[in-house]
Design brief:
5 helices; single chain; about 15% strand; 3 strands; alpha/beta; three-stranded parallel β-sheet
Length: about 100
């Protein structure tokens, strides 16, 4: 019975730490010098998705506070319909929104 009591205590202790961590922004706790070195890579594979859907998805990412640290990779199949037009529209809309915008 002592084991159950100890396990219950550990469970509550873990839950308390977990709840506290939800209210703590890891990003804000980082040293600003280290924080600026962090880069994120977002890969979005596409094929026949309409360009409006791609722009809507990329807008969600570009609205993030760390968008300037994101390298956004748009993966398109060689046979993607209207590939050149999609690339042009995406470049026009998000040309400077990210650290880099790459089409693959």
């Amino acid at each position: 019975q002592l084991n159950y009591l100890y396990a219950t205590f550990l469970c509550f202790r873990y839950m308390w730490k977990m709840i506290r961590s939800f209210n703590t922004s890891y990003y804000d706790e980082l040293d600003p010098e280290v924080r600026d070195k962090i880069q994120h890579i977002v890969v979005m594979p596409t094929y026949k998705e309409p360009v409006e859907l791609l722009i809507e998805t990329m807008s969600s990412v570009s609205n993030q506070t760390i968008a300037h640290q994101i390298i956004f990779v748009v993966g398109m199949e060689q046979k993607t319909p209207l590939q050149a037009e999609k690339k042009r529209k995406i470049r026009e809309r998000f040309g400077t929104a990210f650290k880099a915008l790459v089409f693959a």
